Amino acid sequence: MPQTHTIKDELQRANRALRLLSSSNRTLLRADDESTLLYDVCRIATEIGVYSLSWIGYKELDSKKTVRPVAYHGHEEGFLATANMSWADTERGHSAMGSAIRTGAIQLRNDILHDPLLTPWQGEARQRNYQSAVALPLIVEGETIGAIAIYAPEPNAFQGSEVKLLEELASDLSFGIETIRLRRAHEQANAHIHRLAFFDSLTGLPNRNHLTDLLTDATTAAHATGRTMSLLMLDLDYIREINETYGHSTGDQILAQVARKLRALTTEGCTVTRFGGDDFVLICANGDRELAAELAQRMLSAIRQPFTIDSRSFSIGGSIGIALYPDDADHPAELLARADLAMSKAKKGGGGYCFYRSEMSQTLIRKLELITRLECAADEGNLHLYYQPKVELYAGMIVGAEALLRWHDPLLGWVPPGEFIPVAEGRGLMTQIGDWVLSTACRHIRIWKQQGLPCCGRIAVNVSPQQLEAPFFVERVVRILEETGVSPVNIELELTESCLMDDPERIGAILTELRLLGFSIAIDDFGTGYSSLVYLKRFPIDTLKIDRTFVNNIMTSSSDRAIIATILAIAQQMGLTTVAEGVETLEQRQALKTLGCVIAQGFYFCPPEPAESFTAKRLASPCLPALSVPG
Ligand code: C2E
Ligand code: MG
Ligand code: MG
Fold it and tell me: Residue 581 and residue 599: Cα distance in Å, rounded?
């Protein structure tokens, strides 16, 4: 084709392309969405460049190597729908667009209507007067992803410096696409990281990290508006057991269902979060007590409905603690701790819901104080053993004594065993304290033996479930006896019924071993626990200690008297010794004797007393003063 353009034309064209470039640069700078960017660049190309059509095609990785139009602007009139271009090296692949994508190089088609390579499109091009075209590859991260094609209504429209500037436009557009894609990838990665950090992957609920922020926002908002807000902490029952029995996947499915149910229950202003494990926390902008109670009830009835997993039905329940802002606490962490305390209280009460009360914190503070002081009590010499004699009711002789632990703390004063023993058990201190009790009792027994103390018989030592659960219980007991030089025949181990229930086979083996070594075994507080007759047969037991609540009521309650009579009869049948606990009056003592009870202990005979006074009194007389009363 002869050179028909004048220098003036050329300059005009280059000038146009330059304006096009600078406009598209401004678009690139502002763009944050890929399809808008593509459209805008096409628009600028046709409007400023005064071209017929600009369009962008992306390459598809299908078998036909299709070119998919993704944006256009200008005089198109259905051309793109029928163009059916490919980037393969086939007849349909030799358009400027297809070739630019395939080769990654600029393609000029300066006489479309007569170019033999463009036969498939010449009819459509003639109708729309597309006479020349340029296609410029779009290269993103080193790969040609598509191209931009521009059509002009005259042949040889794309020449010299204009082409150079259009090349620059395509490379800027490529850079723009790459930047937007990178930005999107970063945003997605950030969103993913955010989701991982702040949302629980199992339930999709905000997690504990997020809860802290949500709670801070909620308390700040409540403070600003002068409203109250409520916090409900839910702890589910049986999830651990379900995990252990049916596997964690079943437990997980239940947790996910619980999350869905809770979400369905909540109204506006309420956020459900997963606190961790089987605990969920609800933040409610409305702190009305009645509404909180109503919500708690709805939550409980929702989770009490059976859950179906793999056509198996599971019934679980839960406990809810409720704390209100600002009535119960004005700091998010405190509010959470208080809802937690209330939840523990509800759980101890067997489920349901419970509002926080200030006494709960006092109890906790006391408990924490006890734990701290108790940890060093033995080392600092603040633990003591008292002894309470066991008396044979007919001859009035002391046939033994029970060792009872006492704790006198310099700051807290005397703390009753009923208070500190459960705390020590909760803290895992009972094994260590139990060892101290046994070795102290053994040291006293040795002294009494050396002093020739009459009638000290067997000394009963209480054993907590935790001691039995700890490994090497028998070995530890034997070592203590060896170290103190005391024989097992001088010791009776008192166990409560709960000790026997957890792992009957293991406990049975331990008791059998101890019995063979010469220890005697007593069941303490008999009648208050499981009172199953089966274990009387199964475990090697020597003595039943009738709980003091029955003895206490022996004069007033015929059923308690009947229970004592039954225990005595069973014991006699099975060849077991019985000891009645808590005898406080002469009448009780006589009533027990009438029923056939042989041994008893209680304030009536003697309260528990320090080892020194116990020793002194026993040295003075093997009998007790109270026994001189006829009975
Ligand atoms: P327990 O083994 O049933 O001990 C008998 C409890 O009854 C003792 O309470 C004793 O002081 C009290 N008691 C004795 N006679 C009477 C009476 O006539 N009336 C009344 N109302 N009570 C009487 P204590 O010493 O407060 O001990 C309470 C519980 O603490 C014990 O009940 C035992 O379960 C536990 N305990 C005490 N010392 C130890 C120990 O060294 N180890 C373990 N594991 N538990 C211990
Ligand atoms: Mg006892
Ligand atoms: Mg008892």
Answer: 9
Dist CA 307 CA 525 (whole Å):
40
Which residue carries 């619980």 as its tokens?
258
Q: What is the residue whose two structure tokens read 């009638």?
A: 455
Domain boundaries defined on the chain: 2-186, 208-356, 368-618
Report pLDDT for 456: 63
Q: What value does the mean pLDDT take over residues 609-629?
A: 72
Mean pLDDT of 521-546: 86
pTM here? 0.62
- The alpha carbon of residue 157 and the mean position of all alpha carbons in its chain are separated, in whole angstroms, by 70
Of 383, 388, 404, the residue with max ligand 1 atoms within 8 A of its CB, to mutate for a pocket test, comes to 404
**pLDDT tops 60 at residue 625:** no
Ligand 1 mutation target, pool 462, 523, 552, 614, most atoms within 8 A of CB: 462
Helices (H) and strands (E) in the chain, counts: 23, 22
Q: Right CATH number for 208-356 from 3.30.70.270, 3.40.20.10, 3.40.190.10, 3.90.1150.10?
A: 3.30.70.270
Q: May I ask the CATH architecture of the domain 368-618?
A: Alpha-Beta Barrel (3.20)
pLDDT tens, position by position, 129-143: 999 999 999 999 999
